[in-house]
Each structure stands twice: as structure tokens, then as C-alpha cells.
Amino acid sequence: MAGMMEGKVAVVTGAGGGIGREIAIMMAGAGAKVIVADIGASLTGEGASASPAEQTKQMIEQKGGAAQICTESVASWRSAQKIVQAALDHYGRIDAVVNNAGILRDVIFHKMTEDDWLSVIAVHLNGSFFVSRAAAEHYRKQESGTFVHMSSTSGLIGNFGQANYSAAKLGITALSKSIALDMARYNVRSNCIAPFAWSRMTSSIPATTPEQQARVAKIQQMTPDKNAPMAVFLSSDAAKGVTGQVFGTRMNEMILFSSPRPIRIVHRAEGWTPETIAEHCIPAMQAAFMPLDRSGDVFSWDPV
Q1: Coil, strand, or helix at residue 255?
Q2: How far apart, in whole angstroms, are the C-alpha atoms of residue 19 and residue 304?
Q3: pLDDT tens track for 43-63
Q4: How many C-beta neighbours within 10 Å does residue 46 have?
Q5: Which of 91, 139, 165, 186 is catalytic?
Q6: Whether 53 contacts 106, CB under 8 Å
Q7: 165 a catalytic residue
Q8: Is pTM beyond 0.90 here?
């Protein structure tokens, strides 16, 4: 029986390990020809090696799938163009892009450097834009194509020590929605996944206290492969009509996230002054304020 992605060509960035590798393997298993795009850098973005991408390619081929590698960086316009061009050069078309590449520079906000900020934004947010933009011209001409972008609950909800990462990941959700709106006329779809998994990207979570160790133990149960089915579905024709959404994949749970919408409005016919805001507006709204919580506070139950 033909797979859900039979005849399609997919680019998966950051596919040299973790979630990206599992997505690339499952896409190939579903019939897609895959460009395994990975620069092979460290968790913090230093260095480069073709080995991670080659390993993924070999794993795909051992299962009977088709894959080629590309070791260009997502973090510049020209190199992102080369990633998409690799799909055209090897397979003659491009049908799906999964923007998964990422690095971490976790540090508390008041100690975050310019380089910490710019490096993370460059890979996550700029990279998602650059690769998507490179594919967009081909999608528009063929009037079809899909984007799956990796967001995070660090951006959707919040987390400690990740101002750079959180800003990039929340920005990606807005980018995805804009792509969905702008390219709907060309039958192009764009969605986000906020994945939960123990991988290189989460291995830096501190585990020095009993509470931290218990949290890490829960995350370690959530293997990267649990996130691949949603990425494959969203990239397939079976997801026709699904666009502009943000999904979460947590162990065996599938989550649909809301987007910000007005939740309370206060009107004053005379207009507002700072004093009347303090006296009337804020007291009327305060019960609906969002708490200063983080991802672990919202997802407090054990993954099953």
C-alpha cells in the first residue's frame, strides 16, 4: 500500500538527530524522498560535520527509503536557497518543508549577551523564514506545498533562562500564520508543532535537585519519535484544509493550542486617564490576567 507521502519530496532541517531525524525517517517510510539538511553543529551552534546527516541518510536507506544530504546552514539567505535547491537538483521538485533546525544558548535574561540573542534568532526564526521563503517560489508555481515549523511551549507559555529561544519560537507561530494567510490562494499550507521530547535540545536542562531530576525523568520518557506522526500527517494530502494551526505532540497526547484573542474589554464613555485605568480598568480585568507560569506549570500531569 502506498504511503501517505508517496511521490513527494521533503526537506527536513536539523535532521541529523533527535526529532528531525525521526521525522525524516518516518517521511521516507511514508514514501517521500528526503533531503536531510543538517550543518552538524554543536548544541550551541559551533562547528560543522556531515556525519549526523550521513547517519540519518544511512538509516533511511537501510529501511529502503531515498535520501540525500545537505550541510548548508539555515541561518543565511543564500545557504537556505541551496537547501531547497538540493531537493530540486536531486529529485526535481519540492513538496514539504519541516523547519526543525535549532540551537540553544540558555542563560538568564540579565546575563544574556548580544551573541546569545542573535545566534538563536538567526537559526530558529531567520532560518524558518529563509528556508520557507526559498521554497515559496516553487510552491507558488506548482500551486501546492506544505510547511511544518517547530515552535515550543517555551514561547507559547514561557520558561526560565530562554528569552532568546522563547522569542524565536513564538515568532515562528506568527510567521506560520502569515504564510498560511498569504499563500492559501496557492493551496499552500503552514502549521506549527510544539514538540515534547528528550533530545539534544533538552539535554541541557539542569538536574541537580530532586525536583529537577524528577522533571527530567518525565521528559526522558518522551522519545523524539512521538513527534514524527503529526509532522508526516501535516505534510501529506490527508491534511488538506488544515492550516494556520499550532499543535502539541506530548507522548501519546495530541494538543491544539489557541491563539491570543480578546478575553475581557472595559469601556468608558468619557475616555481614560492613568488614574481611571488604575481605579476601574485594571480591577475589572485583573481576574482574567494570565499567570506568570511556565510550560511545566501548565503541563503538570505525567505524560502517558
Answers
A1: strand
A2: 19
A3: 877 777 899 999 999 999 999
A4: 9
A5: 165
A6: no
A7: yes
A8: yes
